Amino acid sequence: MPRLFNKRVKNKCSPCNGIYLLLLCCIFLLMVVQLQRKNLEENEDVLIAPPPPRIFCIIVTYNYRHQHAGIHILRTWAKHCDHFLFVSDDIDHFLEPAVFLHLHNRWDRIRAHLEYVQGYHSHKGDWFLYANDDNFVVVENLRQMLSPYTPDELIYFGCKLRTPHGLVFMHQGSGIVFSRAALEAFVLEALPNSSICSPVRVDSEATEELGRCLTNLNVLAGDSRDEWQGHRFLPFEANLHLGGQMNKSQDRHKYYLAHSYYPVIDLNFPVSFQFICCHMEHIMDIYDLYYFTYKVRIFGGHQQVEPQYKQFSEELEGKVAWNKKVAES
Question: 102: left (phi > 0), else alpha (psi -120 to 50), else beta?
Fold first, then answer.
């Protein structure tokens, strides 16, 4: 007996199925629009955000210190600069420095180094760090500090000092940072003009003369401290500022205390969590500093202002205000 088949095809496109498909299409379109909007906002953020400041590091060294100090700078913090250049009095296969011969005076060296960099490397950086081969530098913190400023501003930073006559200058052992505009003005306007910048050779007062030249050009000596008045550029070794006190009987400490632009309470001052530069007494300490700065990771915690750090800042402000009140009375 033949099998009978129903030739009537059931209509699969019912009104309910149509509504369901329509809803799926609407949801899909909304997801596509939302994704495109998110991508557009991200692209706008990328376009609007300014590029990070480019740091060109000028590292002063000498022939007898190439293997003792310069090579360790090359292996550690120098590679965090966008570009770097060693300047020395002799050639070296590893450091590949720019060589300056017969410059036995510090002021002559500063002038020659900055003039050379401005002439041949100014296009490689927005800011120019002039440091020594016994400095340790956290370049990322320097880049963060400079981010609110533009390289077209006439400004420079460092460990700020002041002569008894009110001339502002930077400590020679703590690194000095010039904006591109400040470097250009110093080389092109100050150096050729003896009324702005003295051609007379000075040695121990080289950075004072540099400060005089920049002041005559209306280059601002910026405040490199953080929002809690913690110091980013340290004049001496980090362990002295973190766990000790300056000694008035030592000539270098005595000089700093007599010239510090900011008040020093109890022979010390707070170190910023955004520390940038310090002097190293023993060059091999650089590997300890580099390890704890760049390699160590702390899990399960977050950075916060310690109570004693905040208290020190408040006490400092109170003592300064009191001293001003007493002086006025």
Answer: left
pLDDT band at 15 (very low <50, low <70, confident <90, very high): low
Q: Give 239-270 as a DSSP string.
A: HHHHH----TTSHHHHHHHHHBSS--BTTB-P
> Model confidence over 239-285: pLDDT tens digits?
888 888 888 888 889 999 999 999 888 888 889 999 999 999 999 99
In 3D space, the residue among 108, 133, 115 whose CA is nearest the CA of residue 186 turns out to be 115
pTM of the shown model:
0.78
User: 3-state class of 63 per DSSP?
Assistant: helix
User: Residue 308: CB partners within 8 Å, gap ≥ 6?
Assistant: none
| CA 45 – CA 108 distance, rounded (Å) | 46
Q: Which residues, 6+ apart, have CB-to-CB distance to 90 below 8 Å? A: 62, 63, 66, 97, 99
| 81 class by beta-carbon count within 10 Å (0-12 exposed, 13-18 middle, 19+ buried) | buried
Q: What distances in angstroms separate CA 306 from CA 130, 272, 299, 309, one per listed residue?
A: 32, 11, 18, 5
Please report which confidence band the pLDDT of residue 326 belongs to, taking 50, 70 and 90 as the band edges. very low
Q: Which two tokens stand for residue 62?
A: 């000498």
Per-residue buried b or exposed e for 153-167, using 16+ beta carbons within 10 Å of the residue's own CB: ebbbbbbbbbeeeee
Residue 311 pLDDT grade (very low, low, confident, very high; cuts 50, 70, 90): low
**Partners of 279 in the beta sheet?**
135, 237
Query: Could you tell me the two tokens for 302?
Result: 């977050």
